[in-house]
Design a protein that fits this description.
Layout: H1 2-10, H2 15-30, E1 34-42, E2 45-52, H3 56-62, E3 64-66, H4 72-79, E4 83-85, H5 98-104, E5 108-115, E6 121-129, H6 137-158, H7 163-179
Helix pairs in contact: 1-2, 1-6, 2-6
């Protein structure tokens, strides 16, 4: 599946098209019902730029996530390693998010950092599941390999750009789409 995912991504000409492709392929890889991508807008902050399945309150709660926060994406960003949570209700660090997760039907998740060729973390992709779930070892290995390609794609489309401004524009589009 990795060669097909890579081919679809490298066939995209825009950041927006690439982000949609990344998220669609990672959700399909994991058989997940929900997902999101957050870009690193600086060394300490992730910003939501793409999602599937989240409601407006959840989008606002994920708009900006601090590296030192308790969110799974923040932990993946800080550790530069995947964070897998098979049952959200059993993760006390996520207590501030439990009501949001229950409200949209999320029971499990994983968050994986996108690490570029030079070692920089450029963002995190998360997939969310309606039932208690653990992705397989091969799914996670495939995602980590795809993450290198995705990171380099994101850098190629954002090099020298104001990442906070890009993230804000993406977020405004997500909110507009959620209202429609």
């Amino acid at each position: 599946m990795l060669p097909q995912m890579t081919g679809r991504l490298l066939g995209q000409n825009t950041l927006a098209g690439g982000l949609r492709t990344i998220l669609n392929d990672v959700i399909a890889l994991h058989g997940a019902e929900f997902g999101n991508i957050q870009l690193a807008i600086d060394d300490a902050t992730l910003a939501l730029v793409e999602h599937r399945g989240f409601d407006r309150p959840s989008l606002y709660s994920l708009r900006r996530v601090a590296k030192g926060g308790s969110a799974a994406s923040a932990r993946a960003f800080a550790s530069r390693k995947p964070v897998i949570i098979p049952d959200l209700s059993k993760d006390p660090a996520l207590a501030p998010y439990h009501h949001l997760a229950r409200g949209i039907g999320i029971r499990a998740m994983q968050a994986t950092p996108f690490i570029a060729a030079r070692g920089k973390c450029v963002g995190v992709v998360s997939t969310h599941f309606a039932n208690v779930h653990t992705p397989t070892e091969i799914e996670m290995e495939t995602l980590q390999q795809y993450g290198f390609v995705a990171a380099d794609f994101i850098i190629s489309k954002t090099h020298g750009a104001d990442l906070a401004a890009i993230a804000d524009a993406c977020f405004q589009q997500l909110i507009a789409d959620a209202a429609a």
